[in-house]
Amino acid sequence: MKRIQFVFVIFIIATATIISCNDKRHPGRVYMPDMAYSRAYEAYAPYDELAKEGINYKNYPVEGTIRRGDLFPYTGTNDSSGYNRSASVKNPLPPLDSLGLNEAQRLFSINCAICHGPNMDAQGPIADKIGAVANLKIKPKLELPEGTIFHVMTYGKNNMGSYASQLNRKQRWMIVQYIKSEQAKEIAKSAVTPATSGADTTGAKK
Amino acid sequence: MNQNRRIIFKAIAGISFFLLLSYNSAFALDGQTIYKTYCASCHKPDKDFTGPALKGARDREPTKDWAYKWVNHVDDMVNTDPYAKTLLAKFGSKMTQFSDLKQDEIKAILDWADSYAPPNATPPPGGKPGESDNSLLYGLLTLILGIIALILLQVNSNLKKLSDEKSGKRVPNPVPFYRNKAYLLLGVIVLFLIGGYYTINAAIGLGRMKGYQPIQPIYYSHKVHAGTNQISCLYCHAGAQESKHANIPSVNVCMNCHMAIKEYAGDPIIREDGTTVNANAEIQKLYDYAGWNPVKKSFDRAGKQIEWVKIHNLPDHVYFNHSQHVKVGQQACQTCHGPIQEMPEVAQFAELSMGWCINCHRETKVQFNDDNGHGNKFYSIYERFHEDIRNKKYDSVTVEKIGGTECQKCHY
User: Fold this and answer.
1) Cβ A166–B98 below 8 Å, yes or no?
2) Distances in Å between the alpha carbon of A80 and those of A84, B74, B231, B260?
3) Where are chain B's structural domains?
4) Assigned CATH class of B39-133
5) Helix, strand or coil for residue B298?
6) What are the tens digits of pLDDT across the range B241-288?
7) Are the C-beta atoms of A109 and A169 separated by less than 8 Å?
8) Contact B31/B39 with Cβ under 8 angstroms?
9) Is B56 left (phi over 0), alpha (psi -120 to 50) or beta?
């Protein structure tokens, strides 16, 4: 009888162990921790302690340096005078070919179309919730200079935030070209038929 | 001759009158379209938004034609007109001037807004369509069949005993079932199989975290953001196409939208234990992290990092690169992360085991560069494959064929 009890207890312990391993809120255990967890610094690991250990760590690039292949920094300032001066800033990129425009359109549909709409008519899926989203296909915005569009992307305006952390300078200028090319089509269209275009409410998403 | 001319003249006049009429009626219907093009981003027809509600605007304004002047002369009127000043004080920003809008267009918009009725909020259809679950039925059936089988076995053994007694055979004394060696052996084998199954599964699962669903510092619902609001994955995780890591968005990316979106108005978010998430409190948590003051609309405190808990972890001895899979391999995020857009709380979807990786590398076909410039320019160096495909040796090339299962690709 003792033996049966012993087996029974072992069985219960085993079951409890298995069940406790299935806790989804904890990552569980690994075979060889020294091979699974990095000894080196990993991305997003806290870096506050590194200085104490005598390790030199900078989470920003050195000031005044430019990443290889990147454009020169934008010198406009984040105030009204910078905004006014931005109109005279020229696009440093050569005109994009069709592949480049496709890429710019892809970037636009990821980052901008969510509010401004895939057709730039302020009919994006969340435009309704943000409010005051600019319709890029009508008069005041249709004539925005390239530099001003770039300035707004860099620093944000009203309800729009800065996109400098999501899009690098080249990508922002590419999107400026794409917007301008679409606006040019709109201007050409409205020159032929001066009627307001129907609003497309389908939030096509790539 | 004269009569003919008159008939033709009449016909032309009639047709042109008809055209004019139809043009006018088509134009009069346009209120909603013009509203969507010019006004919808700041005005709602029935309630105040960035600007005032449009419904009954002409009744509130000092004169009936005030709106027509206002839309065309915002920049002049905003500092001189007393009513414009009160509006500016109330809403805090001046309207964009639309010099091109004509009076009848503005009238069409306001007429449409006056007659606007909010779409009836249809209550969600009561009860889900009957999803009959058959497993209970099957369970009962199995139980009944099992009992019948047991009874039949008993009957069978009793009958055998009776017939043995009749024929005068000597029957050994019956043994209780827990001493019966056959039963014991059966029990041991069953226990061994069950125990073995669980032991081996647990051993394989050691170090794998499928289903891992940690509690995050903010209850962030991917279902609301990527599902309902259709935000592209790459909007927040832009690094997935450019670097080894799919970056965790910094707080400023959240604030791109949440500077304006202060409240959650969607369907209630229900946790697994049945409680409802207080979404507005979660947005407030974000403001605390960002140091944002939603009343003053400015960052008036020092912000701090949100320490999200990483869910998908690979051991240190495995190299994985997101851009290689997202940009070069053109894989959808959902291939490895599952239906993220339907997960209120993200859990690890895939096994992330080596067998799982290798299997995908064996089965996935490489998208070589096509004429439109899509696909993969990098693998254009594999001329041999192009020729073999051209010669119909095989119809596609998997990742394995271009070295995707070599050890050193991921372990070095």
Assistant:
1) no
2) 6, 20, 31, 21
3) 2-27+136-204, 39-133, 222-317, 325-410
4) mainly alpha
5) strand
6) 889 988 899 899 999 899 888 888 888 888 888 888 899 999 999 999
7) no
8) no
9) left
**3-state class of B190 per DSSP?**
helix
B55 to chain A, closest Cα gap in Å? 18
**Closest to B258 in 3D by CA, of B238, B281, B284, B236:** B284
Q: Closest partner residue to A126 among B97, B100, B229, by Cβ?
A: B229
- Contact check, Cβ <8 Å, A132/B93: yes
Yes or no, beta carbons of B261 and A197 under 8 Å apart: no
Which residue bears the tokens 């307001």?
A196
Structure-block tokens of residue B116: 């606007």
CA distance A64 to chain B (A): 23
Residue where the block lists tokens 């053109």:
B330
Of A73, A94, A86, A75, the residue nearest A168 (C-alpha): A73
Side chain identity at A181, as an amino acid letter?
S
- Chain A residues 117-176 with a CB less than 8 Å from chain B: 121-123, 125-135, 137-140, 156, 158-163, 165-167
C-alpha distances (whole Å) from A56 to each of A43, A50, A52, A71, B397 are 15, 7, 10, 28, 46
Question: Which tokens go with B29?
Answer: 């219907």
Residue of B nearest to A126 (CA): B229
The dihedral sign for the CA sequence B235, B240, B243, B247 = positive
Q: What are the helix and strand counts (H, E) for chain B?
A: 18, 2
Residue identified by tokens 């309207």 is B95
Domains of chain A as residue ranges with CATH: 80-190 (1.10.760.10)
Nearest-by-Cβ selection for B212 from A27, A29, A36? A27
Q: Which residues of B touch A102 (CB under 8 A)?
A: 373
Radius of gyration of chain A (CA): 28
Cβ contacts of B96-100, under 8 Å, gap ≥ 24 = B96/A140, B96/B42, B97/A140, B97/B71, B97/B72, B97/B73, B98/A138, B98/A139, B98/A140, B98/B38, B98/B71, B98/B72, B99/A139, B99/B72, B100/A139
| Structure tokens belonging to residue B94 | 């001046």
Q: Give tens-digit pLDDT for B201-256.
A: 888 888 888 888 999 999 999 999 999 899 999 999 988 988 998 889 989 999 98
B351 vs A: CB within 8 A: no
pTM of the model: 0.72
**ipTM metric:** 0.81
Nearest C-alpha neighbor of B242 from the set A132, A189, A25, A110 = A110
Round to whole Å and give the CA distance between B75 and B71.
9
Contact call for residues B399 and B361 (beta carbons, < 8 A): yes
Per-residue pLDDT of chain B (412 residues; tens, 9 = 90+): 455 666 666 656 555 555 444 444 444 557 777 777 778 777 877 777 777 888 778 878 887 778 877 888 887 787 788 888 787 777 777 787 777 777 888 888 888 888 777 766 554 444 444 455 788 899 999 999 999 999 999 899 888 888 888 887 776 676 777 777 888 899 999 999 999 999 998 888 888 888 889 999 999 999 999 998 999 999 999 889 889 988 899 899 999 899 888 888 888 888 888 888 899 999 999 999 999 988 888 888 888 889 999 999 888 889 999 998 998 888 899 999 999 999 989 999 998 999 999 999 998 888 776 666 666 666 666 767 777 777 777 777 788 878 888 888 888 7
